[in-house]
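BUG: 3D viewer hangs when loading the predicted structure for this chain

Environment: internal workstation, default settings.
Expected: structure renders.
Actual: progress bar stalls at 90%.

Input used:
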Amino acid sequence: MRFSFRNILHFSTILLSQSLFGQPADTDPPRLVIGIMVDGLQRKHIDLLWNYFDTNGIKKIISMGANCENVHYNIISAGSASDIANVMTGSTPYYNGIAGNNFYNRKTEEIQSVIQDENQIGIGTKQTVSAHNLLSSTIVDELLLAYPNKSKSYAVAINAEEAIMMGGHTAKSVTWIDDEQLKWITTGYYSDGLSHWADNMNVNADFKNYASRTWTPMYAINTYFSSPKREDKRFGFFYEPNSKKQRNPTVTILKNTPSANSLVADLGMKIITEEQLGTDKYPDMMMLQFTVRTPNEMTFSLQSAEKEDIYLRLDKDIQNLLQKIDLKIGLDKTLVFLFGNQTAVHSPTELGENKIPAGYFNADRCIALLNIYLMAIYGQDRWIEGYYAKNIFLNKKKIEERKINFSEMQQTIAKFMLEFEGIQAAFTSNQVLNMGVNDNSIMDRIRNSTNKNSTGDIIITLLPGWIEVDNKNNTIGESNTIVSYTPLYFFGWQIKAQKIAKSYQTTDIAPTLSRILDIHIPNASIGKPIVEVLAR
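Structure tokens produced before the viewer hung:
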């Protein structure tokens, strides 16, 4: 056989393409990718409810797909925003900038949302938000960069932070629930603004109809493992999603009821249908956020009939979604991946009730005593500028004016903080940002979870079993385990049914999707593909 220079060049180009993207030339990528994130999802819950799930819902995804049994987050829990950014970028806060749902802003001396952006406009809301603090590309961004004006991506979520992180920088539209006005809302940051189909649900009262559905047990109350958290003699339990929260009477309990999940599933399917996602050769993406959290939930275990019921109703929503997608596009052309965020298996309350050391850490008392201590050493001045989420911020201007050795003060504070109950260790910012990488170590997770733009001058860590809360008893990160595992499943397209026991990290999800979609990995990704999922 004779080879011309032109043939050799063509052959080399094919080999280079395959080495870059890893997708076999004769394999078409999925037409539609559906990412499902479930807030509060735990493998133990799935195991307990396995026999109660429908064969065509969650059970179908797990039993007919790739079940990754040993996947963990390589960052410290600080909220769903950082968890989702970790998955979507294949990277950590050290690179992608998202160290939590909120951060302390040195310029304003206030705690603000990581998505807050005064340069944007809210659509249907006064919230002004964007992905501007997300410093790297996501799998969604890379897909739309690979097929500009061809591929489309949307995100539908319960909360704004989750919606923004799932949509990345380039989604056509992201949408989330307003639990005060009972409607879909969004930001002007994305090209399509509020999708036409979300607007329709607002205008024709579909949204409010969902919010007015009463929540009672789907089955006889005596068939549930646990008794109701709030018992109702007539129904077993009874909730109205549009009733007001006790702690915050301006908002409703909607986001912690099955109605929120049904709203997400309904709008997600409307967008898939009306925008004709998955109907041509260019892959599209739909990101969906659901929840299994119930109103006034105090434990992470499956200890209430309400929690069992919200799982079972979510299973029905997912079953309905899969059936409609199969009819419209075909599950053989659709890739589904399902994962959860970081949630401890047991709450400090549960651990304490069983004589296991644990507790809730509130920093107010520590910081007040620290201020007194520093004034005794350095003089009567305000040495602590602020505190948030295990980060202590010093008054650098005052320290410089008084010509105090900054590093020495950091070390003094780090040593003092070890005296407080619940604190495991304390480090200076330089120690954390410049520490070497040692995969799977707790020090590596601390470094991974820190970004130069939001880190404090001293960073503390908590003992196992302890969780930080703010003054409103809101948790700041819900898992303090040394290794935080998450369920992860891939289903549909050409995914083989299998159990994968090999250890992987959540940063490996984006590279896996990149290989499947035949696109570049996100630009800050540190993960590696899950090779078993790629096997044909």
